[in-house]
Design a protein that fits this description.
Elements: E1 6-9, H1 14-19, H2 33-37, E2 43-48, H3 51-57, H4 63-73, E3 79-83, H5 96-109, E4 113-116, H6 127-135, E5 139-145, H7 154-166, E6 171-175, H8 183-196, E7 201-204, H9 212-222, E8 226-229, H10 243-250, H11 261-275, H12 293-296, H13 300-312, H14 319-332, H15 342-356, H16 365-371, H17 384-391, H18 409-416, H19 423-431, H20 433-457
Parallel strand pairs: 1-2, 1-8, 2-3, 3-4, 4-5, 5-6, 6-7, 7-8
């Protein structure tokens, strides 16, 4: 069994992604940063995943500036980010030079731990990011995405973990993005991985189905070393188990986290107040135990965003129908784990099937690209009906998808022109050109306004 259990705090990234559609502003993070820095977490998740996109798209903030401000305010704590392998922080594969430059600049700006995953568990899609992260000298977590299907087994997950260990990662992460990992399944998988791989094991789960607190305890018994938790006001529901809950449960045992419940309570008081600012983004499923996630398999980070999107289209009443359709689409696509971008691909296609009233009368471009193999190798076979509709007589690609991409960094620099003022700006443009263009124009306007005010003041 593991000794002391270490904790990664998710309140600055995954917790608000899951519960309030990734809308927490930097201005609401900084006032409590010093207190978070004083806790002694193994790491704090501060960046990556959907926060990069949402910060630009909805909050009109620079995600790089957020990282730098938090880094300055929390000098003692390891910063961790979620990196989608060849997808970086986007929803498609990017050229190797973009992936490499992004990882390098993320390390320079303050990231200490890179959690790198691929939605298909396709090792080829993680290779460039892992190698780039190792070159920075930072900690690299190779990630195994957990799911349930006829083609996934304990041996399957072990094989993925062994391949990652062979690539030189420094930790193994078992990522249960939908909260489906049951206690005894967790014990079996973690016990098998720890018996074959000597690296620390980091477990990530969600409370969507109500299993995660029990799963965490069994994971500890099996040898897990680090757990993801969220401070109580942003815990439970589609988020992680509460930090205080885990700390209290392990207090006085050989697994004692050593964290101070009194200090955590003060941080909780702050975030209880802050959460009220984001009431409009709350999902109706946030505080429910949804065991139907075992069928839909929708990850916690996507559920609140899916509700928000349906709400915008005045189709929130279609949520249950979309969730019921997702397993059928997933089976047709060869049972991919549902995590960005495959969760969006399956969710969007399921929504199209429901909204149009006829399955696959409209096939999204992302679905077509998936069947063509442009996201990687599906875990299981794509249905013959789907292949016929999408491919006709064509054959899917068999190479690493990114091998088909030309270098993109210099082209992005050229296309962005005078809009960009730093290497980080170029990367932002390379990842999200349209959103970046709008943001840079807005930023330039702010700077002009600020300059005019300063001039007037003189």
């Amino acid at each position: 069994m593991a000794g002391k259990i270490e904790i990664m705090e998710t309140v600055l990234r995954d917790a608000h992604q899951c519960l309030v559609a990734t809308r927490m502003r930097t201005e609401d993070m900084l006032p409590i940063a010093a207190e978070l820095d004083d806790i002694g977490y193994w790491s704090a998740e501060t960046w990556g995943g959907a926060t990069f996109d949402a910060t630009l798209r909805y909050l009109k903030e620079d995600p790089w500036e957020r990282l730098r401000k938090l880094r300055a305010a929390m000098p003692k704590t390891r910063f961790q980010m979620l990196l989608r392998g060849q997808n970086v922080v986007g929803y498609r594969n990017y050229p190797d030079d973009v992936v490499q430059a992004f990882v390098q600049r993320a390390a320079v700006n303050g990231i200490d731990v890179f959690r790198i995953f691929d939605a298909m568990n396709d090792i080829r899609n993680m290779k460039t990011a892992i190698e780039a992260a190792l070159k920075t000298g930072k900690l690299v977590e190779g990630t195994v995405c957990y799911t349930i299907s006829p083609v996934h087994s304990v041996e399957y997950f072990l094989r993925v973990a062994e391949k990652l260990a062979d690539m030189g990662v420094l930790l193994i992460c078992l990522k249960d993005m939908a909260g489906m990992l049951a206690p005894y399944a967790a014990y079996d998988i973690i016990k098998k991985i720890k018996s074959r791989i000597t690296l620390p094991l980091h477990l990530h789960s969600h409370c969507t189905a109500g299993l995660a607190p029990m799963t965490y305890m069994m994971a500890i018994e099996a040898g897990a070393d680090i757990l993801d938790t969220a401070i109580a006001p942003f815990s439970q529901g589609t988020s992680q188990p509460a930090t205080e809950q885990v700390v209290a449960a392990l207090k006085g045992t050989p697994h004692d986290t050593g964290l101070d419940l009194g200090k955590l309570s003060k941080i909780a008081d702050y975030f209880y107040r802050i959460r009220r600012n984001y009431a409009e983004f709350e999902s109706p499923v946030n505080n429910q135990i949804k065991t139907d996630v075992l069928t839909s398999q929708i990850p916690g980070g996507m559920l609140s965003n899916l509700v928000a999107q349906l709400r915008q289209q005045k189709a929130e009443d279609k949520l249950d129908a979309v969730l019921a359709e997702m397993p059928h689409v997933r089976a047709d696509l060869g049972y991919p784990p549902l995590v960005t971008p495959t969760s969006q691909i399956v969710g969007s296609q399921a929504a199209l099937n429901v909204m149009t009233g006829k399955r696959y009368s409209v096939i999204a471009m992302e679905t077509r690209n998936y069947v063509m193999g442009l996201y990687g190798e599906p875990p299981g076979p794509v249905s013959d009906e789907m292949k016929k509709m999408v491919l006709g007589k064509k054959e899917p690609i068999t190479c690493r998808p990114a091998d088909l991409l030309r270098p993109g960094l210099q082209q992005a620099r050229k296309d962005a022109g005078s809009l960009v003022t730093s290497d980080e700006d170029v990367l932002t443009y390379a990842l999200f050109p349209e959103i970046a263009r709008d943001y840079f124009a807005l930023r330039a306007g702010r700077m002009k306004t600020t300059g005019a005010r300063q001039q007037a003041a003189r």
